[in-house]
Structure formats: C-alpha cells, structure tokens
C-alpha cells in the first residue's frame, strides 16, 4: 500500500521502474525529431520527384527507391516502439519477388505492396505528431527542473520591475513567497512529468503501431486461418485414408474369410458335422478378432467414455490398454463440467495421446513412457515422452505429420524432440 497523497508511480517501491520508464520514454520522444524530419523530407521529396518523372523511365525506380527508404525508417521505428509498448516486435510480410524474377520486377515490387505505401504514409504523418510531442516533453522537463530547483538560483536573478508572478497573484513580492510559488509550480511539473512524457511517447508509438503493424497483423491472421483450414482438410483426408486402409487390410479381409468359413461350414454340416464344428469355431475366432480390430480402429474417434466422463477418465482407460507402462498425469479440472474444454479440443487431445502411444508401441522400442495433460492460461499442454530409440520426425508420409495437421487445424502447435538414440518427446499446445 502506498502512502496517502503519493501517486503509485512515485511510491518508493515503484520509483526505480518509473525513472527507467521516464528516461526511456524521454529518449524515444526526443530522438524522434531528427528521424521524423529526415523521414518526412526523404518521403515527400522522393514521392514528388517520382510522380514528376513517372512519364519517363526514371520515375518508377525513384518511387520504388523512396518506398524502400521508407521501409528502412519503418523497420527502425518498429524496433524503437517495441520497447515503449512493451510488446514483441511485429515484422510484416512484405511483397517479395520470386527467385527467378527479372530486374524490373525486383525494382517495382515495392509499388505493389500495401505495407510499403503505409510506411511512406507514416513517414509523412509522423512529423506533425512529433512536432506536438517533442515541445510538450521539452516544456515539461524545463518546468520540472527550473521550477523545482528555483530556490538554488533565485538570488542570481535580477529584480523584476514588473513584480513577477507572485504579486500578480496577490501573494506579495517577498523572496520567500516567490521561491515557494515557483518551487510549487516546479513540483507540479515534476510530479506530472512521467505521465505527460508517457502520454507523448504513446501518442507517437500508437501512430506507428496503427500504420506499421495493423496490416501486418491482419495479413498474418488471415495467413494463419488459411493454414489452419488447409491443415484441417489435410488432417481429415489423412484420417480417412488411414481408416479406409486399416478397414480394407483388417476387418474387411476377416469378414470375407468369415463369409467363406460359414459357407464351408454349411456345406460340411450334413456330411461331416465334426469338420463343420471346427469351421464354426474358426469363424467364431475370426469374429472376435474382427471385433477387436474394430475397437482398435474406433480409438481414433471420440469414445463414449470421453463424451460422458471427460479427458481424465478417457486417457486413464487409454493408458490402461497400452502394451507399455504409462505414467499418466492429467489436470483434474479437465474432467469437471465447469472447466471442461470444448468437445472438439477434447477429441483432439485424446487423438494426440492415442496416436502418440500407438507410435511408441509400434516403432520406439521403449520400455516406459509418460503422458501429461495440463491446463494453463492460454490453453492445454500435452506432453508424451518415452525412453525409446528416438528418430521420430514430422516429415510428410509419417503418422506425426498427420497429427501436426490435426493440431494446427485447431490453432495449436506440435513439436517433436527425438534425437537418435532417444529419448523422444512430443509436445502439443492447444487453445481451450
């Protein structure tokens, strides 16, 4: 708790951070003036010269060079404003020609890039904003220093024949009154200095963020959504192909043999009842094996226990069926009705764990593995690790590639760390 009458930013516990922020913001604002002047002059002169010469061959390269220069100023500003906004630096995706593009296509590529034109617009608009922020910052620093230190140099100043500010306010012309008045004004400027300078810095950084990162963030979001859509289509196609292949190679072949065995048993029933009984026994075994394979295939689809009881129970049942001992750790909140994730996310988590355990059993040569599913502020983290031989990767054509597509379709990420010789760790991050 801060003392009564002291702003939180100036409390003793927060003072070092406030002073660092004040110094950083002041440096950002004051150094903006020469950059803004250079950016404005280069942008306006280059644009005017390029437009004036556009009827000639020289005009378009001049415009392109102006946009390239504006991009350099914009890149510098993105780096500077990241510290003011306490945010990660956003790097837009500029339009770039292909590796086989000719010279003219490379020269004129900036002219087709919307972000390059926004960089140029920022170079023009930043100067008026800077011409507001810099004088205000300088005035507040001057008022804070000159006023709060007035008592140290009042005796050096010549007497004011007009009486000064104190008599004008009806406070008299005594030296003590004059010193107290100017010191009080200086303290006002000093106390409000961090707030005013911060506001000026945010004014400049806000303009930069709006023009230099808005289109980039929107384009990145559209790209992410497109990648998620493609990943969803790829994951669905991969799952369908695998299901078709598994049904064709397993249950379908067994059902064909079952039909043949039943037909043979019917023919043997009258002539050789013992042979018919043996054939029926074999058919019964085929039926059991077919049911077992169908149950195994259905594990990729949400089982009833997942729908009814949630992830903890479903993953416990999945781990219990594994051929390798599984050390299972699941956040209990994932099983309660109030904090259960979305059904689609639940199904994806179950699928990730089921597929990872299947790969461990088939390919890893592991003797033990662990599964951890935990909730955090941004969603869910799934970690499946084993002590096998390693060598797993996300290359296309492998099971983990389809798994990565399914995770990406839900806005998540999947990473595999599996050096030769092991151990292997599959880590997935899912929103929800």
Please explain how this structure is put together:
It contains 13 helices and five strands. The chain is α+β, with helices and mostly antiparallel strands. The chain has three domains: 8-88 and 99-212, no CATH class; 250-297; 303-430, Histidine kinase-like ATPase, C-terminal domain (Heat Shock Protein 90, 2-Layer Sandwich), CATH 3.30.565.10. A five-stranded mixed sheet has the order 1-2-3-5-4. Strand 2 (369-376) and strand 3 form a beta hairpin. The longest helix is centred in the first third of the chain and has 38 residues, at 15-52. The protein is elongated. The model is unreliable at 1-6 (pLDDT under 50).
Walk me through the topology.
Blueprint: H1 15-52, H2 59-85, H3 103-108, H4 114-148, H5 165-168, H6 175-212, H7 214-249, H8 251-271, H9 273-297, H10 304-309, H11 311-320, E1 326-330, H12 343-364, E2 369-376, E3 379-386, H13 399-409, E4 413-417, E5 424-430
Parallel strand pairs: 1-2
Antiparallel strand pairs: 2-3, 3-5, 4-5
Helix pairs in contact: 1-2, 1-4, 1-6, 2-4, 2-6, 4-6, 7-13, 8-9, 11-12, 12-13
**Average pLDDT:** 78
SS elements, strand count? 5
Beta-strand content bin: 5-15%
Number of separate domains: 3
Order of helices and strands: HHHHHHHHHHHEHEEHEE
Low-confidence region ranges: 1-6
> How many alpha or pi helices?
13
Strand order of the largest sheet: 1-2-3-5-4
* Beginning-to-end CA distance, first to last residue: 36 Å
Q: Given the C-alpha coordinates, what overall shape results? A: elongated
Backbone CA Rg:
36 Å
Percent range of helical residues: 55-70%
Please identify the structural class as seen in this structure. Answer: alpha+beta
The profile of the biggest β sheet is: 5 strands, mixed
């Amino acid at each position: 708790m801060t003392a009564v009458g002291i702003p939180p930013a100036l409390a003793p516990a927060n003072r070092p951070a406030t002073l660092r922020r004040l110094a950083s913001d002041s440096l950002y604002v004051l150094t903006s003036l020469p950059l803004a002047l250079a950016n404005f002059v280069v942008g306006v002169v280059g644009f005017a010269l390029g437009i004036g010469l556009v009827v000639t061959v020289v005009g378009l390269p001049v415009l392109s060079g102006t946009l390239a220069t504006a991009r350099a100023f914009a890149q510098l500003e993105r780096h500077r404003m990241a510290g003011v906004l306490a945010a990660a630096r956003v790097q837009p995706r500029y339009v770039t020609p292909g590796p086989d593009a000719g010279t003219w296509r490379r020269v004129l590529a900036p002219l087709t890039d919307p972000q390059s034109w926004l960089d140029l617009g920022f170079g023009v608009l930043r100067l008026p904003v800077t011409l507001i922020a810099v004088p205000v910052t300088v005035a507040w620093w001057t008022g804070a220093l000159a006023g709060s230190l007035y008592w140290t140099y009042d005796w050096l100043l010549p007497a004011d024949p007009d009486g000064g500010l104190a008599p004008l306010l009806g406070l008299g012309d005594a030296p003590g009154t004059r010193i107290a008045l100017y010191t009080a004004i200086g303290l006002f400027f000093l106390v409000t200095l961090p707030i005013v300078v911060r506001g000026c810095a945010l004014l400049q950084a806000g303009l930069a963020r709006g023009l230099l990162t808005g289109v980039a963030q929107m384009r990145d979001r559209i790209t992410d959504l497109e990648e998620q859509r493609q990943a969803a289509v790829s994951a669905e196609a991969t799952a369908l192909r695998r299901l078709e292949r598994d049904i064709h190679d397993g249950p379908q072949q067994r059902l064909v043999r079952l039909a043949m065995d039943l037909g043979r048993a019917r023919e043997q029933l009258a002539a050789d009842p013992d042979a018919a009984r043996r054939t029926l026994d074999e058919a019964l075994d085929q039926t059991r094996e077919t049911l077992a394979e169908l149950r195994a295939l259905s594990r990729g689809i949400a089982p009833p226990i997942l729908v009814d009881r949630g992830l903890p129970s479903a993953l416990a049942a999945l781990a219990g069926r594994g051929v390798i001992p599984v050390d299972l750790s699941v956040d209990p909140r994932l099983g309660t009705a109030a904090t259960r994730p979305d059904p689609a996310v639940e199904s994806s988590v179950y699928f990730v764990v089921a597929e990872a355990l299947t790969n461990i059993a088939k390919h890893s040569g592991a003797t033990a593995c662990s599964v951890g599913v935990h909730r955090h502020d941004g969603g869910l983290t799934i970690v499946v690790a084993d002590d096998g031989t390693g060598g797993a990767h996300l290359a296309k054509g492998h099971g983990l590639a389809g798994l990565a597509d399914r995770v990406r379709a839900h806005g998540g990420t999947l990473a595999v760390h599996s050096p030769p010789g092991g151990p292997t760790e599959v880590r997935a991050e899912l929103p929800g």
